[in-house]
Amino acid sequence: MNWLTNFVRPKLRALVARKETPDNLWVKCPKCEQMLFTRDWEANQEVCNHCGHHMRLRPLKRLPHLFDEGKYELHPLPRVNADPLKFRDTKRYDARLKEAQAKAEGTTDALVVASGLMGSRLSIVALLDFGFMGGSMGTAVGEGLVMAADLAVARKAPLIVFSASGGARMQEGILSLMQLTRTTIAVRKVKEAGLPYIVVLTDPTTGGVSASFAMLGDVHIAEPDAIIGFAGPRVIQDTIRQELPPGFQRSEYLLEHGMVDAVVHRHKLRETLIRMVSLFMDPLVVDNRPLAVTSSR
Amino acid sequence: MTTYLDFEKPIAELEGKIAELRHLPNSGDVDIAEEVMRLQDKAHKQIRATYAKLTPWQRVQVARHAERPHAQAYIDRLITDYTPLAGDRAFGEDAAIVGGMGRLQGRSIVVLGQQKGDDTESRIKHNFGMARPEGYRKAQRLMRLADRFKLPVLTLVDTPGAYPGIEAEARGQAEAIASSIETCLGLGVPLVSVVIGEGGSGGALAIASSDRVYMLENSVYSVITPEGCASILWRNNANAQDAAEAMKVTAADLKKLDVIDEVIPEPMGGAHRAPDETIDVVGRVVGEAIAELAKLDGDTLRQRRQDKFLAMGKKGL
């Protein structure tokens, strides 16, 4: 052994190996194409440190940023008939589902339900996971939302939903369509109990999800620049054969068209949600500010 | 003149021959009359055989048949004192959803239906039954009106889907459908729906989150068109037949899944071969359903409607 094998070779290897690792070390912003140091980007809740572009944040990454001290409890989704139609396209649906579950590391479908304190108040949060089969809504997601609503009603807690979905899960056929009605029932339960139901629309929210619970909030908040709409842009283009206007179906466009109340930066979401819920649920708080001194005459 | 579907070729040939024979100058001839009878019998048997084993894709074609009776035909035949109502009071009137007040077998009701149109001009006027947000908001307005006067609501579903366009999105197509579903669920009066042709996704469900949902035997109801599903999952819309099969879009399958309450049989050869007969059967079924549901109070109706939808999905095929 000489210095060549002991020293130079490992160095060379490291050089070669480094070419294979930037996936983990660096992330490229799809908007400004800036390379971002993964650690910084994660600390920034996956918002581009350079241009502020909000990338798609998966539920388990988002949850710690929402709750007090980052502490929360996960509620497993109810068990459902996973493949009611024995659906098969170019591949079997149950195989696709198992594959997605294996990649998801712990979550079982495109919805995560959590509870914990937000501004010292117990809150129920349900988050759709676009990374799980495009956030598509089938029976499991519907059942999960019903469970989340029931939890909110039982604990007299607000329900906050983060939407991110391409729509209904075609592989469950008509039963996926029925989730539009079932999740609307879930929303009605929360509303009838007099509890706030707040929707945070994130990129993308389209199809059956936007045409049901995601558009029925007491308040709608959107993350910046998210695609939100009923029909996907490609379907519209194929139908009308016209160019779509710039900014079409983006959060800011929806704000302008009266479909959302506010576009809120991801870093401001937690405080915004806490304030809104408090305004709904604490009708009177002690105002400790000194009274303004009124001059006599 | 009847429009024949691809798979009806043998029927078309037989009926063509019958028409030819009938137009012969000496059509009083006994031999020819006998031949016509023989061919008619054969055509009859052919129709029966063909329609006894329609594939899901063939049913999609029957459901979309241009001569199939559309919503307005049902209203014209079943509803007396029909008084159309228009507009959403916010933006406009959408002819894709027709509706108003009238009497079904003497009972005052509100009726709504997606109207596809029967010729090129009316198809364009009704936008092929594809509603825009104002259509769904008009539907909600009429449903609320019904609720206020305790009138049952009948909805006739027949749409390829909600219209996908720039203005429809700008005016909140998603919200319009979502709130329409919410309105259905909140009604304290009977809500009965019949899928008479195509039940196209959220655009159909928006007026069919109902106490009773019926489907005509050859109608279809699905989360996405078979063509749309094929182009996404098979990346080729030539696989529409496979998608129609895999998605389970037929009335019989949806009944097995407990997604619909009952299948209404069609006359032999489909509704388009005997529109009046079809409409009368639908009238009888919905009349009975409404009479039965009208005995229940609002809370009971809402609770049962909700329970019905919450129970869905437990049963597979």
From TrEMBL, chain A:
This protein's record includes keyword Zinc-finger: yes
Enzyme class: transferase
Cofactor(s) listed: Zn(2+)
GO MF terms, alphabetically ordered: acetyl-CoA carboxylase activity
Entry-linked InterPro entries: AcCoA_carboxyl_beta, Acetyl_CoA_COase_Trfase_b_su, ClpP/crotonase-like_dom_sf, COA_CT_N, Znf-ACC
Entry's localization field: Cytoplasm
Gene3D superfamilies xrefs: 2-enoyl-CoA Hydratase, Chain A, domain 1
PROSITE patterns found in the cross-reference section: COA_CT_NTER
Sites where the protein binds Zn(2+): C29, C32, C48, C51
EC code: 2.1.3.15
Pfam families: Carboxyl_trans, Zn_ribbon_ACC
ZnF endpoints (C4-type): 29-51
Catalyses which reaction(s): N(6)-carboxybiotinyl-L-lysyl-[protein] + acetyl-CoA = N(6)-biotinyl-L-lysyl-[protein] + malonyl-CoA
Main location: cytoplasm
Domain named CoA carboxyltransferase N-terminal: residues: 25-295
Keyword tags: ATP-binding, Cytoplasm, Fatty acid biosynthesis, Fatty acid metabolism, Ligase, Lipid biosynthesis, Lipid metabolism, Metal-binding, Nucleotide-binding, Transferase, Zinc, Zinc-finger
Pathway in which this enzyme or protein is active: Lipid metabolism; malonyl-CoA biosynthesis; malonyl-CoA from acetyl-CoA: step 1/1
Binding note for cofactor: Binds 1 zinc ion per subunit.
Assembly information from the UniProt record: Acetyl-CoA carboxylase is a heterohexamer composed of biotin carboxyl carrier protein (AccB), biotin carboxylase (AccC) and two subunits each of ACCase subunit alpha (AccA) and ACCase subunit beta (AccD).
Protein family (similarity comment): Belongs to the AccD/PCCB family.
Function: Component of the acetyl coenzyme A carboxylase (ACC) complex. Biotin carboxylase (BC) catalyzes the carboxylation of biotin on its carrier protein (BCCP) and then the CO(2) group is transferred by the transcarboxylase to acetyl-CoA to form malonyl-CoA.
Protein name: Acetyl-coenzyme A carboxylase carboxyl transferase subunit beta
TrEMBL record, chain B:
Class of this enzyme: transferase
Main location: cytoplasm
Subcellular location: Cytoplasm
Domain spans labelled CoA carboxyltransferase C-terminal: 39-292
Coiled-coil residues: none
Catalytic activity: N(6)-carboxybiotinyl-L-lysyl-[protein] + acetyl-CoA = N(6)-biotinyl-L-lysyl-[protein] + malonyl-CoA
InterPro entries for the chain: Acetyl_CoA_COase_a_su, ClpP/crotonase-like_dom_sf, COA_CT_C
PROSITE patterns, A to Z: COA_CT_CTER
MF (Gene Ontology): acetyl-CoA carboxylase activity
Family assignment from sequence similarity: Belongs to the AccA family.
Assembly and binders: Acetyl-CoA carboxylase is a heterohexamer composed of biotin carboxyl carrier protein (AccB), biotin carboxylase (AccC) and two subunits each of ACCase subunit alpha (AccA) and ACCase subunit beta (AccD).
Job of this protein: Component of the acetyl coenzyme A carboxylase (ACC) complex. First, biotin carboxylase catalyzes the carboxylation of biotin on its carrier protein (BCCP) and then the CO(2) group is transferred by the carboxyltransferase to acetyl-CoA to form malonyl-CoA.
UniProt xrefs under HAMAP family: AcetylCoA_CT_alpha
Protein name per Swiss-Prot or TrEMBL: Acetyl-coenzyme A carboxylase carboxyl transferase subunit alpha
Phylogenetic lineage: Bacteria, Pseudomonadati, Pseudomonadota, Alphaproteobacteria, Hyphomicrobiales
